[in-house]
Amino acid sequence: MKALIKSFVETYGPAGSEEQIRSLIEAEISGHVDEVRTDALGNLIAVKKGDGSGLKVMLAAHMDEIGLIVTHIDDKGFLRFNSVGGVSPHVLLGQRVIFGNGVVGAVGAEKLDHIKDLRLDKMYIDIGADSKGEAEERVRVGHTCAIHRFMDDLGNRVVSKAMDDRIACAVLVEALRRVDGTPHDVYFVFTVQEEVGLRGARTAAYSIDPDLGIAIDVTRTGDTPESITMDVRLGGGAAIKVKDSSMITHPKVKGLLADTAEAGGIPYQFEVLEHGGTDAGAIHLSRQGVPSGTISIPCRYIHTPTEMVDMGDVKACVDLVVAVLSEPIDI
Amino acid sequence: MAIKALDILPKLSEAPGISGREEEVRNILREIVGDYVDELKGDTLGNLIAYKQGTASGDRIKVMIAAHMDEVGLMVSAIEKNGLLKFKKVGGIDDRVLVSKTVFVGPQRLPGVIGAKAIHLQKPAERKKVIEYKQLYIDLGFTSKEAAEKKVSLGDPVVFATEFANFGKGLVKGKAFDDRVGCALLAQVLQDSYPFDLYGVFTVQEEVGLRGAVVSAYAVEPDIGIALEGTTCADIPESKPHGHATTLGGGPAISLMDRTSIGNKRLIETLMRLAEKEGIPYQFRRTTAGGNDAGPIHMSKAGRPAVTLSVPCRYIHSPVSVIDTEDLANAGRLLKVFLDELGKGGVEL
Amino acid sequence: MDNREFLRSLVQEAGISGYEDRVADIVADELGRLAGDVRRDKLGNVIALKRGSGPEPRVKVMAAAHMDEIGLMVTKIEDRGFIRFTTVGGVDQRTLPGQEVVVHGEQPLVGIIGVKPPHLLSPEERQKAMKMEELFIDVGLNEEEARKVIRIGDLISVRRDLVELDGSFVAGKALDDRAGVTVLRQCLEDLSRLDHRADLYAVATVQEEVGLRGAIVSTYGISPDIGIAIDVCHGDMPGVSPEDTSEIGKGPALALGGNVHPKVRERLIAAAGELNINIQTEVAPGATGTDAWAMQVVRAGVPTAVVSIPQRYMHTSVETLSLADVKAAGRLLAYFIALIDEGIREELKWL
């Protein structure tokens, strides 16, 4: 599974430019599902039909990563930019970025009186061009870039950019391959534009109209030095979300996930995230309402180039998804 | 005799229409477009939907073009004992543009002023602080609550008293160019016929949350959406070049991304290709701040491609804004060639 | 059961956003009894339907009052058994120090939001409001004992019964918006004595405090012709500008602004006039901060209005209002509904 994760996290795909990661995922799932389609916003929707006795279940993992969008190219060939999704200026300092066509750049900043004054509009990308004309041969205004970083394998843990949310895409792909004989019609949705407002999930949920929605996404942890107060840790198992800014998990869905984990001996922990949301936030408010929840992969250093997850937790999440889909569900 | 956007812009600009009270603008637009569309519909929020059936036989796609009728303004929130009015803001207005401006209040357009303490009566430290809107009053010249209540009601809309006029060289000034320029362009483009079904939607309450677009997109269920806007310019001395969202005279602006949508790449590329082919100047909207009707339109139900085309406006959301009439004309030209291309099936959806 | 008893029974229960079940049971029983028909939707909204006498398709009026309350949620159990928590909805953390709470674990546990004694505080410390991160709950157990009964995500509510003040005045927690639910009760009671052609969907919504979520989905399911939100608005008190408040005891306040359809508002005013009910005006230039903001933009749009009960000390555990205003609002709503006929659908379209 590490090879799968590596191929996913290292692929280019900022919100709104998910074509490359979508192709990769589509290639990985073909042959394992009954139907695949891409909708108007770019969501990849794969269906595994059940035996007709179950529910219509929508699972969502988002393909998009955070990135930057070029807004201006100056006379000397430097690129000015803004963020695509939540990007902190401090995290960008000293980073390299990569565009969809492979062009690499370095992030620089204007001189500052104090590091506290650092803002995105005081920064720029240097692609090594000396003039506007030279820069425009490689990159244009409107092009987006992602952080340029490869995955490192630390043994029981892996670290990379874009674990948010490619690790969940990997979880879904694994689960999709393992699910065999489910009573439910399962829609595995690899969504777009989650980072800019849960947009893909919103339109996909409307068109699918599911009975149950489960998002797979990363969540923060409270297990690092002087961390935020949060009782989620790497190695504590699949995190069952109780609440975040976008959703309060339906009590029945919370119960379903916890009971399934207990019954299957799958390690799990409960999670409350004070700031942050997932695709389930959009799914649960679709049409007349959809009971929904989120299975979270605990992740340190979210929205930095060094997002870190535990392989045991990842396995627990895959096991939990497969276990939930294998039995009848009473919601 | 074709109607051009610039011909109808003066009347549209001067008409009052704060979010939730767009009736006068709606009436003007009904008058103008009623003669050349197949059907005019209204919904319960106040959107004006102008429908033109397509000329092609068989299955036709639905194109929705939106321009919002509402402007930012003020609303009377209290009538004081001394006849002065307190107010609340409707939409996003910087408090600092309010003091010492002239306004019209209510459906009767009573002239008033937003008064401030005379400089002589202020301490030096006071002059450094922003006067918040809560500290301001509108003075209509009434000397008692009773006198004021005869002509003014709670909730009465208040707009800036700005006259539309030619300005500088090839420019015009007026209030509410955001988004009366969009309304003017839409009214202009509705005069022509197209192979596809066209829904020209003059939306309400964009400035307080894109609300008219949410419900009209749901009702229309278009295959493609285009939002027409008057957008921020900021090509002014206090801004660095990379902070100029758009440049006056640089042509219509294509939005790349804002807080409510990422522009559909194929539609953006099509607009660029057509502009270059027809020799129409264009630029990109180089900021990602703000949002517009394209947000709800592209996200409604199962989603669809959408794009935003804007006329650069200096000083939006303030008493007086400025546009370049060439930008307005070029926006109309670009929109027309784009719609023609759509009609020919030359745009991949 | 009368309004006072109904309200008391509601505020005694804990019904924090997302976990309104116990309150929902009481609401469903009473509103269902008065309306004749009641169901719960996928997110737990209670939808009571009182059918009108008109021919199908009848005009559908939806009146919504939210039954959820703000509260707290366990985020961590520390060594020595102290509980850390976060807020659910807009809780003013300054109301928390020294407050008794209930932690809803396997069983309900009494807890205290503890504070340093004044003797050990520096003058500077005492001048600053406490931050949420500094607060903790003491349930009197050590970590091991606490972990047996309490889990991450368990809810915490404030202990407060309904306080009977002078005359028609009452105080307590969650009057925002259980008072509104009581208005629905009064309305249904009145409607049993009035002839009304339109259907009334009296909806006790969930999760208003965390984003009007119950209103979004319940309105989609009902698809009403008119939507009225019944909520509370700020009551007069010293230090707050009169233009931001309404007077307690002087009748319900009707909102005015973009979130309110002028013709629906006119009809409410007309109904109030006929009943001799005094009404006040709340100027709302944008969002009204109520379920009506969500209801208005569901599907192809809904004409909405807001009827509010003036209330002091919102989002504290001593919210204060007058039951006379609650009754007046209920009567007003019922009469408004009774005056509706089929022609209203066209009347509410703009052209």
Note down, in words, how this protein is organized.
The complex is a heterotrimer of chains A (331), B (349) and C (351). The longest helix of chain A has 16 residues, at 163-178. An eight-stranded mixed beta sheet of chain A has the order 1-2-12-3-13-16-14-15, sandwiched between helices. Chain A has a six-stranded antiparallel β-barrel with strand order 4-5-8-7-6-9. A three-stranded antiparallel beta sheet of chain A has the order 10-11-17. In chain A, helix 1 (2-9) packs across helix 5, helix 5 (163-178) crosses helix 9 and helix 7 packs across helix 9 (311-326). Chain A has two domains: 2-65 and 161-326, Zn peptidases (Aminopeptidase, 3-Layer(aba) Sandwich); 67-147, Beta Barrel (Elongation Factor Tu (Ef-tu), domain 3), CATH 2.40.30. Chain A contains nine helices and 17 strands. Chain A is α+β, with helices and mostly antiparallel strands. By secondary structure, chain B is of the alpha+beta class. Chain B has two domains: 5-71 and 175-343, Aminopeptidase (3-Layer(aba) Sandwich); 75-160, Beta Barrel (Elongation Factor Tu (Ef-tu), domain 3). Chain B has helices spanning 5-14, 23-34, 145-151, 177-189, 211-220, 265-278, 294-299, 325-343, and strands at residues 39-42, 48-52, 62-68, 73-79, 85-90, 102-105, 110-115, 137-139, 157-160, 165-167, 171-174, 197-203, 224-232, 253-255, 283-285, 306-313, 321-324. In chain B, the strands form three sheets. An eight-stranded mixed beta sheet of chain B has the order 1-2-12-3-13-16-14-15, sandwiched between helices. The longest helix of chain B is centred in the C-terminal third of the chain and has 19 residues, at 325-343. Chain C has 351 residues and is of the alpha+beta class. Chain C has two domains: 3-69 and 173-347, 3-Layer(aba) Sandwich (Aminopeptidase); 71-158, Peptidase M42, domain 2 (Elongation Factor Tu (Ef-tu), domain 3). Chain C is 29% helix and 25% strand. Chain C is built from ten helices and 17 strands. Chain C has helices spanning 3-11, 21-35, 123-127, 143-149, 175-191, 213-222, 262-275, 291-295, 323-338, 344-347, and strands spanning 38-40, 46-50, 60-66, 71-77, 83-88, 100-104, 108-113, 137-138, 155-158, 163-164, 169-172, 199-205, 226-234, 253-256, 280-283, 304-311, 319-322. Chain C has an eight-stranded mixed beta sheet, sandwiched between helices. A six-stranded antiparallel beta sheet of chain C has the order 5-4-9-6-7-8. In chain C, helix 1 (3-11) packs antiparallel against helix 2 (21-35), helix 5 (175-191) packs across helix 9 and helix 7 (262-275) packs across helix 9. The model of chain C has no long low-confidence stretch (mean pLDDT 95). Classes of the chains: A alpha+beta (331), B alpha+beta (349), C alpha+beta (351). At the B-C interface, helix 2, strand 1, strand 4, strand 5 and helix 5 of B face loops of C.
